[in-house]
Specification:
Elements (H helix, E strand, L loop, with lengths): L3 E15 L9 E15 L3 E5 L6 H9 L6 E6 L2 E3 L6 H6 E4 L11 H11 L7 H7 L15 H12 L6 E5 L7 H16 L3 E6 L2 H5 L4 E6 L2 E6 L1 H8 L5 E5 L6 H7 L7 E6 L2 E6 L8 H13 L6 E3 L5 H9 L3 H9 L9
Helix pairs in contact: 3-4, 11-12
């Protein structure tokens, strides 16, 4: 197994909120933040950092990048332990960060943007084309920023994060505003970077956009890591599985007997009348769905001349996983996802 490029052990950080008093106008109180965070970023791995608004994702990103200094805890970068104070310069070159919602506009071009940053950082400007090629911007390198799509703007933000060839990439909501085609292309860029050995942490509250690209996830809620690991393993651990739903024009008689005859009696089946059709809802097996079971179910229906006009397998949403892991009601979790931040915490 590859070594951890970045390690956090029991790291805490809390925002300091101005709370002036008569005798102390500069008084500050302790606000929200992150609590007892431990994690490793491994070379070649893509990790999804998920959670609702206000969970602490952006705060954690800033601590990882060195923009915020932890109150306490241990941090190692490339096996070297750091003190909880301003980061040494070499760590800034080791980590590249793509903030959320960077707005690019004007008559400048991607080439000129990267060139300016390289000059400011006193770096070799001969690498501009290579950096733009990494993110698929070579064909647009000399076009005005105002003419580029949102997907191209996101690629430019990623290109800025890649300056200096950092080993670790921290990406905060990189898929925001991207259409499905641009999202797929951006995913391909990130997978290629991981193949070349970079450790990538992607913050998002959208499960669907992460599921196909990440090796594992870190689930945050109220400033703490409440679960981490492979998404499939987490679903199996908490029994979070979506149903398999088939739609037919008519009601099925003796549906339980049909399932029993085909050795599918362990599956829980519910039949509901919906408008002018019937919905057959099949609960997931204890260890989750696999292709073979779904194929067996469909073959059973077809062999009995029961041809569904539609069948779906709805995606598990973040709110459902949070509810299962925290034990809170789905409605309360839903309100948490919509809430605004307090005391400098992320939106």
């Amino acid at each position: 197994m590859a070594d951890a490029l970045l390690e956090l052990e029991s790291v805490n950080f809390h925002h300091k909120i101005p709370s002036p008093k008569i005798m102390n106008p500069f008084n500050k109180s302790i606000g929200l933040g992150i609590n007892d965070i431990s994690l490793n970023l491994i070379s070649g791995n893509i990790i999804g950092l998920i959670g609702p608004n206000g969970a602490g994702k952006t705060t954690l990103m800033k601590v990882l990048s060195g923009l915020l200094i932890p109150d306490d805890g241990k941090i190692k970068i490339n096996n070297l332990k750091l003190e909880n104070k301003n980061r040494p310069n070499w760590t800034k070159e080791f980590i590249g960060m793509m903030p959320e919602n960077v707005h690019w506009y004007g008559s400048s071009t991607p080439y000129q943007v990267i060139k300016k940053i390289l000059i400011i950082r006193n770096m070799d400007i001969s690498n501009i084309e290579k950096i733009l090629e990494q993110v698929g911007l070579s064909m647009k390198s000399h076009e005005a920023l105002d003419t580029l799509s949102q997907g191209m703007h996101q690629r430019l933000s990623l290109a800025c994060a890649l300056i200096g060839n950092p080993s670790i990439l921290l990406l905060d909501e990189p898929m925001n505003g991207l259409d499905p085609v641009a999202r797929e292309a951006f995913t391909g860029v990130l997978k290629n970077l991981a193949k070349n050995g970079k450790a990538i942490l992607i913050s998002s509250h959208q499960l669907a956009e992460l599921e196909r690209m990440v090796d594992s996830v870190i689930l945050m809620h109220d400033g703490s890591v409440i679960e981490k690991g492979n998404l499939t393993e987490i679903r199996n651990k908490y029994g979070i599985h979506h149903d398999f739903v088939l739609k037919l024009p008519n009601k099925i008689k003796n549906i339980d007997e049909m399932f029993s005859k085909n050795n599918l009696e362990d599956l829980e089946v519910e039949q509901k009348k919906v408008d002018d059709y019937y919905s057959i809802i099949i609960n997931a097996p204890k260890d989750g769905w696999n292709v073979e079971i779904k194929q067996k179910i469909l073959k059973m229906f077809f062999s009995n001349d029961l041809i569904p006009f539609d069948f779906t397998s709805p995606k598990i949403e973040l709110v459902e996983i949070l509810a299962a892991v925290t034990g809170l009601d789905v409605d309360k979790i839903g309100m948490s996802i919509q809430r605004k931040s307090v005391g400098g915490e992320e939106e």
